[in-house]
Amino acid sequence: MPNELTAAEEITTRSQSPIDGEPSDFGLAEIRASQRKAERRSLWVWGNAVVIILALTGGLASLTATLLPKGATALFGLSLSFALKAMVGLVLVFTAHMIYQNAQLRRVQRQLADHQIEAEVFRRLAMFDALTGLYNRRYAEQRLNAEIARSERRGHPLAIVLLDLNDFKEINDTCGHAAGDLVLREFAERLTRSIRGSDLAVRWGGDEFLLLLVDCNLSQLQHVLVRLAPFELELQKKKRLVTFAAGWQEYANGDTAAKLLERADRNLYVNKQTLKGRKYPVTTAS
Fold first, then answer.
1. Number of neighbours of residue 143 by Cβ within 10 angstroms
2. Is residue 148 part of a domain?
3. Tens-digit pLDDT profile for residues 55-112
């Protein structure tokens, strides 16, 4: 991990971050807009096809009537006029059938798209926290196990950081839950801006968060912690300093996810006790 994020890395981080990429409806409006766009394009293509078929039919009938002599007979002794009318009628019937089948096809496609939208929304709900837009604990546990297996195979460094907001209950009690939600969202945004696109920012639960930092050791971790500074928010027309405690742990060969989290949580608890009565968070490596 480089000491400082380059401009390209910051762009990558923002583009891959769920908090920037997922609106409050988890992309449902965007999916439906894409669906309507595809339907309009399909309708435009089919409409043009119908117009072209009718134009070619009309042109062929007109050309045939002009070039052939009057009274000429078509196949089976039918008059040319009747044959042309029959041909035009068949084309019209065929075109109407095409339009009907296209309408039926679009109805089926719309139903399938609705099912796909529902499946995608449920998938995203299973991965993301609705309030902050960060990944949720369930997804993070799966990803942590996968990254541990990867580090076990390839020997790549891996670190996790648990973060806990200080005096969050007091903020909720004195300023209201809306203010508490604002603090959580702002802190989540700062977490997202402080990591790379390959890392993971997670709302672990309540006012507790987790960072999963791949290919990152403890010396490199300090650069992430430096970017995570206390910040001020205006709550009920008053500036309030928001601070946090952090505890982290680097993966060691043979560690399980439970052991890694347990040691990070223990470090967080020690750090939390150290912070009592202090204005800014103090971090100590394990």
1. 17
2. yes
3. 777 766 666 666 555 555 555 555 666 666 677 777 777 777 777 777 777 787 777 7
Q: 91 and 180 share a domain?
A: no
Q: What is the pLDDT of residues 19-66, one digit of tens each?
A: 444 444 555 666 677 777 777 777 777 777 777 777 777 766 666 666
The residue assigned the tokens 């790549």 is: 156
| Residue 207 annotated as catalytic | yes
The catalytic residue among 207, 215, 255, 265 is 207
Query: Given 127, 143, 170, which residue is the final one in a domain?
Result: 127
Task: Please state the pTM of the whole predicted model.
Answer: 0.60
Q: Do residues 86 and 182 both lie within one domain? A: no
* Position 75 in a domain: yes
Based on the fold, state whether residues 187 and 119 are members of the same structural domain: no
